[in-house]
Amino acid sequence: MILFKRLASLQARLLALLLTLILCVWVSAAVLSWIDTRHELDELLDAHLAQSAALLVAQQTDTDEADRDHRPHRRHTFDDDDHPDAPTLHKYATRVAFQVFHDGKLTLHSGTAPQTPMSQRLRGFATVQLPEGGSWRVFGAQGNKGDVQVFVGEQVRSRQSILWAMMQSVLMPLLAALPVLALLGWLAVRQSLTPLRTLSQALSRRQPQSVEPLVIADTPSEMAPVVASLNSLLARIGQMMATERRFTADAAHELRTPIAAIRAQAQVALGAGEDAAQRNQALRHTLAGCDRATHLVAQLLTLSRLETAGNTRPGLRVDVCQITQRIAADLAPAALARTQVLTLEASTPALIAADEALTAVLIRNLIDNALRYSPEGAQVNVDVHHTQTHVTLQVNDSGPGLPAADLARLGERFFRGLGTTQTGSGLGWSIVRRIADVYRAQVQAGPSALGGLCVTVTWPIAPDQGPPQI
Amino acid sequence: MRILLAEDDPLLGDGLRTGLRQQGFLVDWVRDGLAAEREIACGNHQAAVLDLGLPLKDGMEVLQSLRHQKITLPILVLTARDAVPDRIKGLDGGADDYVVKPVDLFELGARLRSLVRRAHGHTQDCLSCGALQVNLAARSVTLSGQAVGLSMREFDLLHVLMLNAERVMSREQLEQQLYSWGYEVESNAVEVHIHHLRKKLQADLIQTVRGVGYTLMPPKDPPTEPAP
Lengths: 470, 228
Hints:
Number of domains of chain A: 3
Strand content of chain A: 15-25%
Radius of gyration of chain A: 53 Å
Number of domains of chain B: 2
Largest interface: A-B, 29 and 27 residues
CATH superfamily of the largest domain in chain B: Response regulator
Number of helices of chain A: 11
Largest sheet of chain B: 5 strands, parallel
Order of helices and strands of chain A: HHHEEEEEEHHHHEHEEHEEHHEE
Oligomer: heterodimer
């Protein structure tokens, strides 16, 4: 089986397996029939030997009785010498031999027979080695009074040649049938594998971007699951490609505006001539445009990774308090520069089952949004607390807030509220919602007591086991 | 040439406004669709640059609503939507030109001049009236082959008068075409500029129609070029 697995083609594997099986069956049949035929042949020829021996014994007994009846001439007919030879009547007669002993004295024997008794066994069968003709099958028989001893022998080689001749007539047709069987087997295997070939041809003809389902006529039941799985895979790839395409289109679209702004500002700086103030202003705007494009690209990449990787990293126990503290510390200098007041209310560890990096992205987006869209001198309050079942993060700001219609559109990709002088990517909310979905968190936005926007994220609390990740 | 710019992106809007001003355009900037529609409908501008992805009212809706009101102001759509179906939709929806971001500021200026020129039935970027030649792109003026140095306002005033040659323009109309938002208009500014123009060019080129306004009349003596 391992050998067959080395073969690359299924057709070759099947054919090799089939031919090996046929060969095994053929060889076993040949061996069995050889054993059986030899056995039958031995029985038959042994019976002949025994019969011949019996005949000779009977004849010698007759001769003895005739002697007693005074018919000595009968005996003398063979008595030209002491050891009369029987005439050789047939070419096969050289392969048979007989000896007749009267009272231990060789009285009659065939030309092929030696002078000494062929076998030590006086009665029954024996296989002996004789100087002439190699191996012999010898049958010994005695007359009733024990004075006549007869040996009848036959060369084993002659039996083998008979057996071989018989086997040839049986095996030759089988041997001839083997290539025919192989050819037929090849055709059958090839025919049976046609649907597989059709499938592979259909697949190789396809355009790489084609995701239409495969339709194969006369799909055998064994292949139906393969085709179904392929089609379901194609459908999923199609969906992913559509997401990717939409994303690329959106990204290209969204990047045009910041790039147009950078270009326009750079051109203004070039055209400012002697007006140094205008040139410096335009250059500052160019830099701001670059920063915005960078931010947008970073956000796009985050969202792209979230969407295409189907990011489902298993949640470890992470502390929302600690992450929030770190991010607040990161963002505080920028907030201070705009005379904004950022306060954090987070003391007790609040553990959730989530990925630390993604949770940080979510919290950073929320606090960054609050700071970004609030005017100078605004107040931004961040509060983390937990109950028996949930961990809640709340971000309040005293910024302009959002009208109800805009609140409903939050999370739409690239949606930006109106009248903001800040240049966000419009992706923050998409990212927040996507990460929240991954870790079964709820995100709500509404008017804040501070006058601006209040965003609340609620995670299920982490199961109370294992050490925290941070 | 007074242009309305409708763009919600602060950085891009600022860049376009400053860049077009450097080329001698007067630019008024609005940031949402409703304001854009209102300002275009007022008719104080000679052309508009309209972004499609505007808040409050989408640029395409603004365009359709304006064309529905039979407002024929040349409108250049400047947008990030670059797909061919979007371009077709924009042009069929009433845009006179469709430009995809990012755009070269000089190209944008040239396209705007071209739109305004064609809207007034001219074919070249050079307006002429008798011996007077005005090159819009170079913002240069020649009288009988002699270059004449004009201030920015004087040039703009001459440009408006030439575009509307042989038509009487009221002082208010001229003021609206000359001053974008945020400029204090002195009560006699137009008179002062007309006075300077008459001094620098031929005295009889700009006629005063008492109680109504001013008009640019080509000189009666040959060679006369028929005003379009």
